[in-house]
Design a protein that fits this description.
The complex is a heteropentamer, with one copy of chain A (about 280 residues), two copies of chain B (about 350 residues), one copy of chain C (about 280 residues) and one copy of chain D (about 400 residues).
Chain B lengths: L3 E10 L2 E11 L4 E6 L5 H9 L6 E6 L2 E2 L10 E4 L11 H11 L4 H14 L15 H14 L4 E5 L7 H17 L3 E5 L3 H7 L2 E6 L2 E6 L1 H6 L4 H6 L6 E7 L4 E4 L2 E4 L8 E5 L4 E4 L14 E10 L3 E8 L2 E8 L9 E6 L5 E3 L11
Parallel strand pairs in B: 3-8, 3-9, 6-7, 7-8
Antiparallel strand pairs in B: 1-2, 1-4, 4-5, 9-10, 11-12, 11-14, 12-13, 14-20, 15-19, 16-17, 16-19, 17-18
Helix pairs in contact in B: 2-3, 2-4, 3-4
Chain C lengths: L20 H29 L3 H5 L12 H7 L4 H32 L5 H13 L2 H15 L5 H24 L4 H9 L4 H12 L1 H17 L2 H6 L6 H9 L4 H26 L9
Chain D lengths: L1 E5 L5 H11 L7 E5 L2 H14 L4 E7 H7 L16 H6 L10 E13 L17 H15 L4 E2 L8 H14 L9 H15 L11 H6 L5 E5 L4 H6 L4 E4 L8 E3 L1 E7 L7 H11 L2 H11 L2 E2 L11 H15 L3 E3 L10 H17 L4 H19 L18
Parallel strand pairs in D: 1-2, 1-3, 5-6, 8-11
Antiparallel strand pairs in D: 3-9, 4-6, 4-7, 4-9, 4-10
Helix pairs in contact in D: 1-11, 5-7, 6-7, 6-13, 13-14
The chains are: A mainly alpha (about 280), B alpha+beta (about 350), C mainly alpha (about 280), D alpha/beta (about 400).
Bound molecules: adenosine-5'-triphosphate (2 copies) and magnesium ion (2 copies).
Family (chain C): Belongs to the binding-protein-dependent transport system permease family. MalFG subfamily.
InterPro entries (chain C): BP-dep_ABC_trans_perm, MetI-like, MetI-like_sf
Membrane topology (chain C): Multi-pass membrane protein
């Protein structure tokens, strides 16, 4: 029982924020992708972007990274959340530890993982001390794109799993235990309880976590640059390159729009895949 | 073979004793009804049998296996939860099919069973709905159907019909009874409805404050309550109790009338009579002093019409007495009522131990 | 009955059957392993932070170097660090408050009502995160200078709020969806307005979600460099002050600077953690 | 207070000295605010667009200031008599106005760990090295020690393009633009490829070679003087500095100029100009040198108590510019906001030829097209070492 | 003044018609019980009155105000939810105090009222617990206490006692009735328990499939059901119905016996008699052909002991007839039973409209 305008009133503050601090500057920037300095409409910036030799690489790298990181991260976070829920003692301490990376910026995370992987880094020190290697190995050399990729994936998983974890833990806390009990009584194994009850009931949180995570994944930048240098161009690093090194705001805007478009496409996909049927809401 | 043995099971929540040492054996295929006051531990007991709660001490056996350490799914049970626990994310169909899918039944079989139980519960029209789109009673029936569909060896039902109307409940009762007898299921059934208990139970177990006070057939429990509590708890209205003081020679003074009773040395007893075992004498038809049987008199205070009957609450010596009258009895509040107990229906209780005294 | 009564944290002490000792060891092992996975890199950061410059550059590196706080004290004594720290705290706090104030109602609306434009709004909220902020900084800065918001705590907090808003909206949305509407309805019939029902019933129940949003907001603001560097001059936040010069700093200072930045965020998370994980066994009856 | 908005003196330690030593004596006070290129540019662009702002003085590289040319006030009135004339000319940015005043200068040199010296090729003079000798040296080190010991700043923040523009091309082609796709250029790239095969593989992550020197990851490096300073200051006895190598057409090298400018939107013009004058004083320039390892642009006598890095770099620079085959180049002028793309031509050539292993000829032809387009769009005439041109500098 | 007027209220969920046009007026201070089959729309109606659901059409008035557009809190109501909705994050005390705090009552008053209602509901020992630590019945009582404590003008209760045992329920019933009469509250009370309905109601409204079929006093509803549905729904066991065909002259042929009935042209009628309005003649005591009253005979099929009574399900011409017998009646399954209806208790129904025919 509510007036039709109530939802809109509730959205108003957020919408105002978005309009002033996002939509307005966004429009100005997006406009640049389609118009020249003199105001003529053109698609040449998109052509310039698409025909640049790094564009495809950056696009593919970005997608590959997201593909390698996000699903694993979701699975890991879900697993960690269930571990936490099964704990009695030490739960708070473990959760706190697991949420620590939340407070670590991507710049700092890049720094930390660089310290591990670089040639005179901890990993080499460790291997050296163990006598596995004589000479430090240049893990991050440009020829080892695979290792660089792996290092970035590790760092991203380390850094950003807690984002997903926190959302899921909070979501799991709201699932009444009676449903798990009912499932158990009806013969569901631990795994079945998880897939048939916990996961479906967690859908809203899963959806949120996944969307946010995917979007952030398309914007990976600092960690990639820290570990990969220019070896693994991604869309976001190209935005920076075009904006601040090549000083071409038009093409940079075009790149940004590409990121936006992919993000929205994936968002819609996830929203659709994890939708909750209308009657099935609590 | 699914006999259930509950041995000295106790349960504490922190400092709350929900169950004191419970001993109870439910025979294979028996239909046991658990009756007891709100908060006496019925649900707790069911949950311990189901394996959803760990007993603080004691053992639970199902068939030949001690099941204390087994997870619920290995106990061969199904349960109807007091608060239904119908999965909100599944349709009614999928809710009912849940246990069957867990058992990996082939789809045609699932379909058959779901449709059969849904029909039994009169929810066949709702199969595509979600639980959020059901009324309370409909949701409850889904919970029952879900449990029935799995055809378990042991079925635990926690007030499964509490939200159904009388008509439907009567129907369900009959059908449940038939179905469970056919499938040879051992059942523990919690209810607050005594008619339900009486009409369905092979045996009724009466619980009070975490203990089982009596476990016997319906008639036995009704006629020969093992304790004051049982008498006062079973029967609607419940048994009347009047204080009795010794009058010598195995006679007792009850409400000013000399009544023959147990010959014992107790300083006090309690005289129990069920309202429907009271014969009211039409006004002026008896003379208390000349009658063979004891004749009591009581003052009518409140009259409650109950449709088919009239319930009169009366006073004898400041003690309360309820009498069931025919609904067209022309009695009025304030009238003096003369009555006698049906003689072999009088029961005596020890006010100290609250237990019944073996009939004389 | 004078027992100490705890809120019912029912979710966690579910059935414990079927766990053999082996399972328990594996369980504990996995938990410990995952803790190490998180902690070891942090420890390495600490090692590098608390080593002398020589040790930081040495090879092979020792996992237990001699304690040397030169690098850290360099930062702590760095002129303006205190000021920047304070600015950061202010901005992050304002961001946190604003993003929840604006985000939670929106999340509530998304979870409780069906209305036209719902999906559009959700996508719109997400666009904020999906579009590279640095590009927006220029038009924003121009706007700020023109309307006088430039170089103010509030101005920066507003931008950070925009960044944190998607988190606040979506997280609260997903959690509100998990709360039976009946609890709210009960509150209404007991004399609550929607707002009061929200405060008294919904809010305590979704506290973990609110806390999560708050943490995200705080951390997002805390770690945001670009907008901070462009939009503040005198009120520079710590990252704007430090972080962006880190890439030019010598290695040992990089680590120390990184640690100096990380620490307050960790303390913050530590402080709010109990809200993050406070749970009520919500049954729908 | 005048806000000094700078991309230089960014590292925390330098910031601190700038604030506490260099600017401390300026009357009226100055707030030194360094930031990274992105925010730096965005902020000043915003102020210029808004027409008002807080920035009083801009301090940045020649290349950055070119872009803002239209928004900078004419500083001709300031006293520039003691300044390097070439730099002053650069400061006009191709206009009649003095758009910026030179602030400080630097260049790129080589540095080596003393352990590397024993592998120096027979008969090679460290102060007159040739590219072939550098290659041979790197090769020996790689073979003898088991890992490549030459390091090159090819990381994201590394200044690799300067090496190609100001060192490799002039040394091999005596040109920066015109002979971009010449046979000599092809040879140069092939030589570099050879050198790369003895270069540390992680070089694509290196941006500040002092770090890798200090960790002993590499022994011989090429980088900006300021980006080597830490190594010399921390372990003065372990490292030596020496000139860049020479090629067939001489010892190419390129200076870096940092300028100071005042934007149209400056809140207090007078104070801003005063700050620039203050910064141009010899004593202040020396203090600046101490802080940043960038050398003065006015004639000064350096005192003896300079940091080790200054001494080492100073000697190497002197040796480089004083060498018989010195072939100095100039920073690109007149490119406007195409400077970035100009750099990208060289960086892309590097990434394609060296990292991606594409055919040298093809890449050069391809990149030459881009280069030509840029030059034509900017209409920039040639600069040293290319011979002056009428109109846009041609790419043969 | 809190008269509730419900005018032509209808409610659709998508294509499901939960309520067809409902018209109902509940007088000020009246205690109206809503009875109806599971899923017939009782909860929906309550929710519309409470303002939790918007009616698809129609008006709701409370007192002199049309409240359709008012939020729940401005309607002066309190409600007990069918599924309790006890706040999980508050103690029992704070749950009960919730409405009082909203009304900004001073703490001593809050304390007083909470303790009073808690005592009334026998949950005074549980005040410091959380809802997760309560049994089903205890939780339900908290929900009732929470609503009572606010002393609303209008109280809506959706099966508030369904999870309580008979004894407690009886007690609660009486106390509720007293308290609500004292506080002059207008009450709509949904229940499935007919005894409860009969004993508490000023008036009973019978719902069927989203419509109100009859709204009248308990006796009226019981004695003179307005429709076949009411007769079959009310009474435990419900009214017996036997087909009747015209036998001329206002007589009807019922189960082979000639019975005087309404004089009408209908081709068929239905003869209704309540089980307890059946007088069984002791075997051989009557001769059907010579008796003045119609004498029917029926074959006993099933006997169910109900404690105080014996329920016999019999057959007449393939039609079902249920008779209530004294529990010590020595009857057996298969016996032939001779009976007559108590004459003025026979009711007649039109099988077409299903409505009762005005008594003759
Ligand atoms: N959200 C919904 N969508 C579709 N149908 C609904 C919805 N809610 C209720 N219904 C249907 O409306 C009808 C009336 O529901 P209501 O809850 O009012 O029944 P009720 O009389 O309270 O039943 P019960 O005694 O079982 O609680 C039911 O048939 C139910 O299935
Ligand atoms: N988690 C708990 N903590 C403390 N006490 C509890 C907890 N759960 C149940 N109890 C108490 O244990 C007793 C038994 O509860 P149980 O649910 O078994 O009662 P019940 O017989 O099912 O009652 P009802 O008929 O009301 O459902 C109750 O008094 C209840 O208050
Ligand atoms: Mg219970
Ligand atoms: Mg209902």
């Amino acid at each position: 029982m509510y007036s039709k305008s109530l939802p809109y009133m509730l959205l108003l503050p957020a919408t105002l924020f978005l309009c002033i601090f996002f939509i307005y500057p966004f429009t100005l920037v997006a406009w640049q992708a389609f118009t020249t300095d003199t105001g003529e409409f053109t698609s040449s910036f998109f052509q310039e972007m698409a025909s640049h030799w790094k564009f495809n690489t950056a696009l593919i790298n970005t997608l590959l990274l997201a593909l390698a990181v996000v699903p694993f991260q979701m699975a890991l976070a879900i697993y960690m959340a269930t571990l936490v829920n099964g704990m009695k003692r030490g739960r708070d301490a473990v959760l706190y530890i697991w949420t620590i990376p939340l407070g670590i910026s991507d710049l700092a995370a890049g720094l930390i993982w660089l310290a591990i992987f670089e040639q005179s880094g901890f990993l080499n020190s460790f291997l050296h001390t163990l006598g596995v290697v004589e000479q430090p190995v240049g893990f991050l050399g440009y020829e080892n794109k695979g290792i660089i990729f792996l290092a970035i994936v590790l760092a991203e998983i380390w850094r950003a799993t807690s984002i997903v974890l926190v959302i899921l833990v909070a979501g799991m806390g709201l699932i009444p235990k009676e449903y798990a009990e009912a499932a158990e009584v009806f013969g569901a194994s631990r795994w079945q309880r998880f897939t048939r009850v916990t996961l479906p009931m967690l859908k809203p949180s899963l959806q949120t976590a996944m969307i946010l995570r995917v979007i952030l994944a398309f914007e990976v930048f600092a960690v990639v640059v820290a570990l990969g240098g220019t070896n693994l161009p991604v869309l976001m690093s190209e935005v920076f390159t075009w904006q601040y090194e090549l000083r071409d705001a038009h093409v940079a805007a075009a790149y940004a729009l590409v990121i936006l478009a992919i993000s929205i496409a994936f968002t819609l996909l996830i929203m659709w895949a994890l939708r909750v049927p209308k009657g099935a809401r609590v | 073979m699914a006999e259930i043995k509950i041995k000295q099971v106790a349960k504490q929540y922190g400092s709350t004793h929900a169950l004191h040492s419970i001993d109870l054996t439910i025979a294979d295929q028996e239909f046991l009804v658990l009756l007891g006051a709100s908060g006496c531990g019925k649900t707790t007991l069911l949950r311990i049998v189901a394996g959803l709660e760990t007993a603080t001490s004691g053992e639970v056996w199902i068939g030949d296996r001690r099941v204390d350490q087994l997870p619920p799914r290995d106990r061969g049970i199904a349960m109807v939860f007091q608060n239904y626990a119908v999965f909100p994310h599944l349709t009614v169909y999928e809710n009912i099919a849940f246990g069957l899918r867990m058992a990996k039944l082939p789809q045609p079989e699932v379909d058959k069973r779901v449709n059969r139980t849904a029909e039994l519960m009169h929810i066949e029209a709702l199969l595509q709905r979600y639980s959020g789109q059901l009324s309370g009673g409909q949701r409850q029936r889904v919970a029952v159907a879900r449990a029935l569909a799995t055809e378990p060896e042991v079925l635990l039902m926690d007030e499964p019909l509490s939200n159904l109307d009388a008509l439907l409940r009567m129907e369900m009762r009959a059908e449940l009874k038939t179905v469970l007898a056919e499938s040879k299921t051992t059942t523990i059934y919690v209810t607050h409805d005594q008619v339900e208990a009486m009409s369905m139970a092979d045996r009724i177990a009466i619980m009070n404050k975490g203990e089982i006070v009596q476990a016997a057939s319906a008639v036995e429990v009704y006629r020969n309550p093992a304790a004051h509590f049982v008498g006062s708890f079973i029967g609607n209205p419940p048994m009347n109790f009047l204080d009795a003081t010794p009058a010598g020679d195995g006679f007792w003074n009850v409400g000013g009338v000399r009544v023959s009773g147990p010959a014992g040395g107790q300083a006090k007893l309690r005289f129990g009579i069920r309202p429907e075992d009271i014969r009211v004498h039409p006004t002026g038809s008896v003379n208390a002093s000349t009658e063979q049987q004891p004749v009591f008199s009581a003052t009518v205070r409140i009259l409650e019409p109950l449709g088919s009957h009239l319930l009169a609450s009366c006073k004898i010596d400041d003690q309360m007495l309820r009498v069931v009258l025919d609904s067209d009895d022309p009695i009025k509040s304030g009238d003096e009522l003369q009555w006698s107990p049906v003689s072999d229906r009088v029961r005596w209780f020890d006010p100290g131990s609250e237990l019944a005294i073996a009939s004389v | 009955m004078s027992q100490q009564i705890q809120p019912a944290k029912v979710m966690f002490d579910g059935p414990v059957h079927g766990r053999s000792p082996l399972h328990k060891y594996i369980f504990t092992g996995v938990v410990v392993l995952l803790c190490l996975w998180v902690l070891v890199p942090i420890y390495l950061l600490a090692v590098n932070t608390l080593s002398s410059p020589e040790d930081v550059n040495a090879f092979p590196k020792s996992l237990f170097p001699d304690l040397n706080t030169d690098s850290v004290s360099f930062f702590l004594n760095f002129a303006g660090v205190g000021q920047a720290l304070w600015s950061s705290v202010k901005v992050a706090t304002v961001t946190m408050v604003l993003s929840i104030l604006a985000g939670a109602p929106a999340g509530y609306a998304l979870s409780r009502f069906d209305f036209t434009g719902k999906s559009t709004f959700r996508v719109l909220v997400l666009m904020t995160r999906a579009f590279p902020l640095p590009l927006l900084a220029l038009p924003l800065a121009v706007m700020y200078i023109r309307i006088g918001l430039d170089d103010s705590i509030l101005g920066l907090a507003l931008v950070h709020t925009t960044l944190a808003l998607p988190f606040a909206v979506l997280i609260t949305y997903s959690l509100f969806s998990g709360i039976p509407i009946e609890l709210e309805e009960a509150a209404w019939t007991l004399g609550c307005s929607r707002l009061q029902a929200f405060q008294k019933v919904i809010f305590p129940l979704v506290l973990p979600g609110i806390a999560a949003s708050a943490i995200f907001a705080f951390v997002i603001s805390w770690n945001e460099v670009f907008a901070a560097a462009v939009l503040t001059i005198e009120n520079r936040t710590l990252p704007a002050f430090l972080l962006q010069s880190l890439s030019f700093a010598p290695l040992h200072l990089k680590f120390a600077g990184g640690a100096v930045l990380v620490l307050p965020a960790l303390i913050f998370i530590f402080l709010v953690r109990k809200y993050l994980f406070s749970m009520w066994g919500i049954a729908n009856r | 207070e005048v806000l000094f908005w700078s991309t230089q003196a960014n590292p925390p330690e330098e910031q601190q000295i700038m604030r506490e030593k260099v600017l401390a004596d300026f009357e009226g006070g100055a707030d030194f605010a360094p930031s990274e290129g992105g925010p730096w540019l965005t902020r000043i662009q915003a102020e210029l667009q808004a027409g008002e702002g807080k920035i009083g003085v801009l301090g940045s590289l020649h290349g950055d200031l070119i872009e803002l040319s239209d928004g900078l006030v004419d500083l001709s009135e300031l006293d520039t008599s003691s300044m390097n004339k070439t730099f002053l000319e650069l400061g006009k940015l191709g206009t009649d106005e003095q758009k910026y005043i030179p602030w400080m200068q630097a260049t790129y040199i080589m540095a080596a760990n003393k352990k590397a010296l024993e592998f120096l090729p027979e008969g090679a003079d460290i102060n007159a090295l040739s590219y072939d000798q550098l290659i041979a040296w790197s090769k020996t080190m790689a073979e003898e020690t088991g890992s490549p010991k030459f390091g090159f700043p090819a990381g994201p923040k590394g200044l690799k393009h300067r090496f190609f523009q100001g060192y490799m091309y002039p040394s091999y082609t005596n040109s920066m633009v015109t002979k971009f796709r010449s046979a000599e250029a092809e040879l140069a790239w092939n030589k570099f490829k050879e050198l790369w095969s003895y270069t540390n593989r992680s070089s694509t992550n290196f941006s500040f070679m002092q770090e890798q020197l200090l960790t002993d990851e590499v022994w011989v490096v090429f980088d900006h003087t300021a980006r080597l300073a830490d190594a010399f200051n921390q372990r003065p006895d372990d490292f030596i500095a020496f000139p860049a190598p020479a090629g067939p057409t001489g010892r190419g090298f390129m200076p870096v100029v940092v300028g100071m400018a005042v934007p149209n939107s400056a809140p207090d013009m007078e104070a801003a100009k005063n700050l620039i004058s203050y910064m141009s004083q010899p004593e202040v320039q020396i203090e600046t040198l101490r802080a940043t390892n960038f050398f003065p642009v006015v004639d000064v006598e350096l005192p003896d108590d300079m940091p080790a890095s200054v001494k080492a770099a100073g000697a190497a620079v002197a040796a480089m510019s004083g060498s018989a085959d010195a072939n100095p180049g100039l920073l690109p002028v007149g490119l406007g906001d195409l400077g970035g793309k100009f750099n990208a031509v060289y960086v892309d050539a590097f990434e394609r030829i060296v990292l991606a292993g594409q055919d040298v000829r093809e890449v050069l032809d391809d990149q030459a097209d881009s280069l030509r387009k840029i030059m034509e769009e900017a209409g920039a005439p040639c600069w040293a070492p290319d011979a002056p041109s009428e109109g846009a500098c041609p790419v043969d």
